[in-house]
Structures are given as structure tokens and as C-alpha cells.
Specification:
This protein has ten helices and no strands. It is mainly alpha-helical.
Length: 217
């Protein structure tokens, strides 16, 4: 379970679309404060997902070979298949012309964005399809040991790692941080498809293979 949560957390923190939104917020006027609010909303939504999942299972993970356990494996397989399809389609679309995208309304007024708006934007940009894989994995958790509790905390922190690192860097070294954000945004703009392809295929194949192996054994 721990390895699954770490891998899922890495994919969440590397998803380029919400990461691009965060970079824009952090680079805006009073960006450090708004970035902190975004991170708070991001972490809060993840913590809420963990808490609600544990509440739904009653802190009693389904026993193996039961209907709930099989259903959990099926859900992870379906999510894995969906991720693989996304990765393959993105790979096939590489190099093809794309229709122009309209600038989101929130982005046009980003300098005047309030901190609470930035906080609310975080769960809206969360990659919920990947988070759903985390939910399916968390159903296997039981808070009977410190190792399990630590695994859930690590999941939330790993899923926020890039955001926290950027926030700290820009907060302590604003000039260098501003240059870093500009370079990072440019890199994201030109490598979004490649990142989505890699993270989707890696996590997708992992979920499929791991779930089938667990089901068979």
C-alpha cells in the first residue's frame, strides 16, 4: 500500500495542469501569500479525502476475496486503463496542430486574486482521476499502527512536494525564485504533453499490473 500511495502522490504533484496554475499564482503579485493559500487548499482537500475514505470504511479494510476487496481492485484496474488510454492518445496527438485555447477568466485577473480564491482554486484543479486511485488504495488502510498513519501523511506530503518546494524557494529567495518560475513555466508550456504521457502510462500500467497480480494471488 505504501509504495502505491507514494507513486500516486508523485503523479499528483507532477500533473502539469494544476502545477501550471500554481506557478502562475506564485509568480503573481503577492504570490507567496496566495501560493501558501493554494497549498493549504490542496493539502486540505487531500486530507479530507483521506478522512472521508477512512470514515466510509469504518477503519476496517475489506478482507481479501470479498466483494468489496474485488470491487476495489476492479476500480484500480479501470482507472489504470483510463490513464493508459489518456497517455496513448496524448502520444498519438504529439506534433499535431492544436486549436487555440482561451485564457481562463481567473488567469486574466490573477494579480488581484484574493488568497481565499487561490485556496478554493486548488481543489478545483486537483487531478481527481488520479486521486480516485489513491482513494481505492486508502480503503486498504487501517490505523492500527504508526506505519499506516505515516504512509497516509507521506502520501499527502508527496502529493504536495513540488508545490511546497517552489513556495519555500520563492519565499526565501524571491529574485532567484522569480527567474526559476519563469524558466519552469516555459518548460511546462513546451513539455506538458510529454509529462502527461509519462505519468499516465507509468501509473496506469502499475495499477493494472499490481491489481491483476493481487487478484490472481
Amino acid at each position: 500500500m505504501t509504495l502505491d500511495l507514494i507513486l500516486i502522490g508523485l503523479v499528483i504533484t507532477l500533473e502539469p495542469i494544476p502545477l501550471t496554475a500554481f506557478v502562475l499564482i506564485l509568480a503573481s503579485k503577492n504570490g507567496v501569500r496566495k501560493g501558501a493559500a493554494f497549498i493549504l487548499g490542496w493539502l486540505g482537500s487531500l486530507a479530507a479525502v483521506v478522512a472521508l475514505t477512512l470514515a466510509a470504511t469504518g477503519n476496517e479494510p475489506p478482507k481479501s476475496n470479498t466483494a468489496p476487496a474485488v470491487a476495489g481492485l476492479v476500480v484500480k484496474i479501470l482507472i489504470g486503463v483510463a490513464l493508459v488510454v489518456i497517455g496513448v492518445r496524448r502520444r498519438q496527438a504529439l506534433g499535431k496542430p492544436k486549436p487555440p485555447k482561451k485564457t481562463p477568466k481567473w488567469q486574466s485577473g490573477i494579480d488581484n486574486m484574493s488568497w481565499w480564491y487561490a485556496m478554493a482554486l486548488a481543489p478545483l484543479t486537483q487531478p481527481w482521476g488520479v486521486v480516485a486511485a489513491g482513494v481505492a488504495t486508502i480503503t486498504e488502510a487501517k490505523l492500527s499502527s504508526w506505519q499506516t498513519s505515516l504512509a497516509l501523511v507521506v502520501f499527502c506530503l508527496v502529493a504536495t512536494a513540488v508545490y511546497l518546494a517552489a513556495e519555500i524557494y520563492v519565499g526565501f529567495w524571491p529574485e532567484k525564485g522569480g527567474a526559476m518560475l519563469a524558466s519552469f513555466r516555459q518548460w511546462l508550456d513546451t513539455h506538458t504533453d510529454q509529462v502527461i504521457i509519462v505519468v499516465s502510462l507509468v501509473l496506469g500500467f502499475w495499477l493494472i499490473a499490481k491489481s491483476i497480480y493481487t487478484f490472481v494471488t
